[in-house]
Amino acid sequence: MTIGRLSEITGVPASAIRYWERHGLLPAPERVSGQRRYPPEAAERITVLRTCQQAGLTLVEIAEFQREQPLREAMIRAKIGEIEQRMVDLEHAHQLLTHALRCGEEDIVRCPKFREQMAAWRTPDPAS
After folding, report:
1. Distance (Å, rounded) from C-alpha 50 to C-alpha 62?
2. Predicted confidence (pLDDT) per residue in 24-43, tens digit
3. Model pTM score
4. Cα separation, 125 vs 20, whole angstroms
5. How far apart are CA 99 and CA 97, in angstroms?
């Protein structure tokens, strides 16, 4: 299929497809009369790329993700660590904001519970 058709099917601009090719994230397609011709599995590869981006992987990490298993494991382990830390940070933020929403203190910064939650967020959890 042409790059235009692939773009239409995947909802990804042709410029992004060409960019991913230049950076080795998509295999170079065969060319017919100078035009790129993609196999049907190219749409699936693009879906994987988009999903990886939505999961927070950078283009460099996506390239590593597509390598053979032993080569990608270190990146995956590091990314899992980052995600777990973000989850902790998001939970703290949720607790802080939920309390701030419900708190009756005129000045939220003077609220003892709010201050306690802020201090807990800055202090690493010894269980981690």
Report:
1. 10
2. 899 889 999 988 999 999 99
3. 0.66
4. 40
5. 5
